[in-house]
Amino acid sequence: MNGTLLFASNKLDKYEHIICYLKQHGFVNIITVLNGEDALKHLNTQPPLFAFLDTELPILDGFQVCKLMKSSLLANCNNVPVILVTDSQKNCMISLLANCVGAYLSIHPSFALEDLLYLLQNKPESTPANITANRIKILIAASEQSFTQMLETYLLGEGYDVIIAGNGQDAIHQLKNEKLSIMFLDDHLPESDVSEIIRKSKESIHEIFITIIVTQGSELRAIELMKAGANDYIIKPADEKTIPTAFADTLIKYHLNLCNHRMDVEELKLLSLIDGIVDGIVFMDMYGKINTVNKAANAILSQLNLVRNSDGSIIRINTIDIKDIYRTLFEEKQLSVSYEITINDDFEKHFNVIASSVNQFIDENIHVIGDRRKRKRLARSFIGNNIGIVIVLRDVTREHQLTNQVVQSERLFAVSNLVAGAAHELNNPLAGIQLCTELVLNDPATSEKSLKYLQRIQKETEQIQDVVKSLLTFTGNYTLSKEQININEIIEVIIKQKIYQFDHANIKIIILPGDVLPFVFVDKYQIRRVLLNIIENACAAMEVSAYDKCLTIKTEAQNNVVKTYISDTGPGIPKENLSKIFEPFYTNRANKKKKGTGLGLSIAHSIIKQHNGKIYVQSEVGKGTTFVIELPAMESL
């Protein structure tokens, strides 16, 4: 938060909870001084947003410093609000004197810190009435009237709001109707279950601080009640001399308990926030041990290969050596280091790994801590101390897929333009060659030897034309002629056509047609071409197979989709090649004597896509391959 606060007191330990609270809520720049003279030096240099002045400052007290701030001597501080701080309100003249010297407000530790924070954040023009009204409320639920009266008198004199409850029912009633901060609860409260009051108190007000009042010799009972939820205990009999000490101790513990509770809440919020991040977050200490890991990181780490030491610390994540990360970050002083991990499981996955160092710095205003030895110890322990690394794990598989799709689309676009132009240029001379060949073939004067060569020319020309048609199909430069058909009919025609080839190659055929298969609306010649290409590929794969050769074709209807499975018992396709088989010009034929163009499956993919369907492959090396074709049923069109 913008703006500086000046806090002047020679009893900073007493007000340390206020300073820490303000720092935690945005006021990080708080200057502290120990006497009035040093306060004037800072005020002369730079006017703060607010000035907190102890009424009992040495050299110049808070009243005197405030009076000087409102004078012409410190004209630049005339508009700075002054809050006079006192640890006692027994002197009723303090608030009157504060008004006389132009102070904005006088406060006492009995005031609620939330109200003070609201005041600083909003900085109203006039003194707010609520900060003097909303003081810390204390409930005294005790049976002994003399003790209750003695404690009440002391607390009222110190400026606290005090509520008295004579029995347990009254105490619970006050819990429901008042915003209580501290409760003094007598163990011998009449007609009351003290443990039940403690439980209901904690349920009603989570941050309430409960001090049990027990008689001397009842320490075991006090421990039992603290196990039930009480925070502290005091022993009777007490007198006017021991009560201030006992209550001062209670107040310190109350603020400590409040800070711890709120820190727990903030830590829970932080952990929930970290758990909600879609990227994996891992915090590792200086020895490679994982301290914090969120859900996303657990999911990603389960897919990676972690090498651990005997003590559980991480040595390596896949190919990343953890020592290399620490050396780069702490010895070479790099802000961060990043890696990429690629794994091949069921399909290829990519992960980014980004590591950065975590240093623990104590606030520059460490001098707020009053204990000199404690201050030096903290400074030595924490300033610039490396405490570990944060590793961010990000699944970038989708980004890689999109990048590959863009590259593939650009490649296909370029190839399509090239092929379309080449096909046009080839078709014209091919038509001329065919025409001339037919004319010579029909000439009676042509010799038999010439006829043989001409027929060879005609056959080769037709093959070239078939290749040109395939290229045009691949580029999408064709018009579908769709009709209603049962996919089993196309398969039946292909099997009849290829039956002699299957017998010659000793391939066993198993046909499993689906019952009551819905119609599909397709170009039957193009779909026949797809099925024929996959079946021929399967036969070619099994020619070199050492296993029994079996081709299985199965059809079924599932969720408004007609599925066709074509399985072979060939050698299978390696995992690293599965993602490439539909790419143009890629071929991986097991029989090297029968080389293909590498366009068959690309064309099949293009045709199925034109029909709003899907084609994919399932394969395992040594166990064969299955192609699956999905086409929308007529009902879903």
TrEMBL record:
Q: Which Pfam families does this one have?
A: HATPase_c, HisKA, Response_reg
Q: What reaction(s) does this enzyme catalyze? A: ATP + protein L-histidine = ADP + protein N-phospho-L-histidine
Gene Ontology molecular function terms on file: phosphorelay sensor kinase activity
Q: Where is the Response regulatory domain?
A: 4-124, 137-251
EC code: 2.7.13.3
Q: Which UniProt keywords apply?
A: Kinase, Phosphoprotein, Transferase
Positions bearing 4-aspartylphosphate: D54, D186
Under what name is this protein listed? Answer: histidine kinase
- What CDD domains does this protein map onto? HATPase, HisKA
